[in-house]
Amino acid sequence: MSETLQKRPKSELSDRERVRDFQRRLYLKAKREPAFRFYVLYDKVHLPYFLREAYRRVKANGGSPGIDGVTFADIEDYDVERYLSEISKELSDRKYRPSPVKRVYIPKANGQERPLGIPTIKDRIVQMSCKQVIEPIFEADFENSSYGFRPKRSSKDAVTEIKRNLKQGRADVLDADLSQFFDTIPHNKLLIVIGRRISDKHIMHLLKMWLKAPISEDGKIIGGKKNKQGTPQGGVISPLLANIYLHLLDKIVNSQEIFRRLGIKIIRYADDFILIGREIPEEIIEYVKRLISKMGLELNMEKSRKVNAYEEGFEFLGFTFRYDKGQKDWKKKYWHIEPSAKSKNKVREKIREYFKVNRHKAMPEVIPGLNVILRGWMNYFHIPQVSYCRKTFNQLHWYLHESLCFHYKKKSQKVSKLYRRYGFDGIVTHFGMIDPSKYIYQK
Q1: Would you tell me the crossing angle of helices 121-139 and 48-61 to the nearest 10 degrees?
Q2: Contact at 8 Å (CB) between 101 and 235?
Q3: What's the pTM?
Q4: Fewer beta carbons within 10 Å, N or C terminal of the chain?
């Protein structure tokens, strides 16, 4: 495909193809020269086709408006090309300044709340354009042991790698948790790491502005230039910055003799990671704690724990891993990977809330949104030849069955004629609802 792109005139390439062609060339350069520092990048950020592709990706991701209240519909009404050309001029004239980040809180499973920072759509577009430019450079450096928020990698790859290591006898697992990672990344150390690969002062200035962008919370503006740590969780650029910084941890574990001698591996997804090996002595745990402390971070020892997976299960990325007897052959044990109890409760709560909010709607209107929830959840946990989800999906089938019955009872004081007429299977057949017990992977 890359050879085809090179042969075609640039005028015939789509915005996506032109961006990918540039990224491929940048990646190859970075791969060939690991010590090279890139110094002319900023001019690419405000190129029209980079901004158009950035807008397409940001819009595809969706999300609510930032502090200025501007929505995608507003931009479409204003004229997208005009809007992007004004952003391009601001960037080329060095007049671009990010707006404050809107802080919102989302509930966590443990009853606490996670802070999220929502930049304006304009800032998300510029961040995406910048990300398109610098990501290939760092992708050339990243270790194979990191899976989160990277092109062509996913949580499924991480889970598959964990199972492979478990089957090889690496059953000692340190399930690590970093305390408030996104809020505690030290700016000075992060910028030093980025500066090893990028010497373009204008790119570095963009990154500094985003790191130090003030936060709007309950109508008050806090933070700003005095910020010395943290990057808003929810920004387009934040996952890449997290990977750049934690790449240091990946590289040390994968290269230092103390880990290699014991065969200890790291598997990381963004700020979640585990160490896995045949044996993880206490001295290794202490070493990792000191290493993380030197990075200006902290290992949460209350949530971090070491387990022998042969004897005790552990959870990672919403999955439960345990060594258990097979359902067909009870004389044998195998590595059983399925959605965790917390993940099951979460999807049930989501279904329950969805029915509650959409109680007034007719079934043809209810089903599409319900299918989105079911498809997304089941697609995430279904990993062929790796995870076992049939039992869980059957349980979800019965929960959905009961929820539909309850939904119609609440919808009308009378016994629902529609549900009596069709039943669960009828709703699947006539209205296209997904039956979890007959799940087939869907994109």
Answers
A1: 110
A2: yes
A3: 0.90
A4: C
